[in-house]
Amino acid sequence: EKAVNLKKDLAEMQEWMTQAEEEYLEKDFEYKSPEELENAVEEMKRAKEDVLQKEVRVKILKDNIKMLATKVPSSGQDLATELNVVLENYQLLCNRIRGKCHTLEEVWSCWIELLQYLDLETAWLNNLEERVQMTENLPDKLDAVNDALESLESVLRHPADNRTQIRELGQTLIDGGILDDIISEKLEAFNARYEELSHLAVSRQIALEQQLQTMRETDHMLQVLQENLVELDRQLTSYLTDRVDAFQMPQEAQ
């Protein structure tokens, strides 16, 4: 009777493993929204816990069959053969579910990481847009133009590492058919805004550099003129002091 019950337990265990395999491993999943992906991750975590909890039952079966084999070798041998099959299938099921759970957790982590990088780069784009707007309607002063140019250039020196991560993470998920529509839409919007703002910022940078160069040249010319006027004033004052006749002066002084 004990052998019959153990044989029944082994059959039930094998049936449960078959159902678990069909439910968790053979089912095709489509992750078209973050909610679907998150639900799949949570479901697979529960599946892993459920399968691992059966380990106690498997151990009890194993111990009972070994005990029976010592008392009734013939019955125990048959059950031991069936037990080995169940143990092998159980270990395989555990490994596959662990693997799928790990994969889904990695995919979810990849999605969260992508969102974080997008948030960082969006904040940078907002800052860049603000700096570009600050270059408009500047006072016609060299210091103001120079400060605006330096401020814009400091933002433009932003490294490209985050954008590389966004591209690679997005492509990895899209290639796996995971959240591909949502990710494609997000990346398209981000890349379009990045190209537009970057082009505008570089154009403003070039314009400010040219404006700054013109202002510096003008300042230099004014400085030279001012120095010449000061020298001329000094000479004229000297001529007047010495009561020099106008016709005795150099032509330019006259």
TrEMBL record:
UniProt KW Coiled coil keyword: yes
Signal peptide: none
Swiss-Prot/TrEMBL keywords: Coiled coil
One Pfam family linked to the record: Spectrin
Keyword Coiled coil: yes
Coiled coil: 3-64, 208-242
Entry-linked InterPro entries: Spectrin/alpha-actinin (IPR018159), Spectrin_repeat (IPR002017)
UniProt protein name: UTRO protein
Native source organism of the sequence: Arenaria interpres
